Amino acid sequence: MIAFSNTFKVTINLLGKDESGVESGVESGVESDMALQILNMLSKQALSKAEIAKTLGKEKPTRYLNDLMKKLIQHQQVAYTIPDKPNSRLQKYQITEIAVQMINQGHKL
Fold first, then answer.
1. Domain boundaries, the chain
2. What top-level class would CATH report for the domain 9-104?
3. How far apart are CA 13 and CA 93, in angstroms?
């Protein structure tokens, strides 16, 4: 007997463009919540990935956090404080004006 799952969710699009895909509902919801938490933290001050992880209650950055930070950078919602050296041990992340404007306009992330 073959079992089929008919549960699909639209991918959370961090830029608000018309793109969709299949993704687990739990993952997309958590990603959106975590992205909002990160952007909220970064709206107050620039933080390192380790500082972000600790604020989120993690001992150290997880792969999930690393992937989410890459997405936020690709979507120009977060930027490096040292853009020429992305792997610097002194690297921190800051919210971009694009993300601030989107939040102020009420866009969902």
1. 9-104
2. mainly alpha
3. 20
Please state the pTM of the whole predicted model. Answer: 0.69
Q: What is the pLDDT of residues 3-23, one digit of tens each?
A: 444 443 334 455 444 444 444
Cα 38–Cα 39–Cα 43 angle in degrees, nearest 5: 120
State the Cα–Cα distance between residues 22 and 81, nearest whole angstrom.
33
Residue 71 burial (10 A CB sphere; 0-12, 13-18, 19+): middle
Q: What is the pLDDT of residues 76-89, one digit of tens each?
A: 999 999 999 999 99
3-state secondary structure the chain: CCCCCCCCEECCCCCCCCCCCEECHHHHHHHHHHHHHHHHHHHHCCECHHHHHHHCCCCCCCHHHHHHHHHHHHCCCEEECCCCCCCCCCCCEEECHHHHHHHHCCCCC
CA dihedral 78, 93, 29, 59 (to 10 degrees): 170
Q: Please give the Cα distance from 78 to 23 (Å, whole number).
A: 23
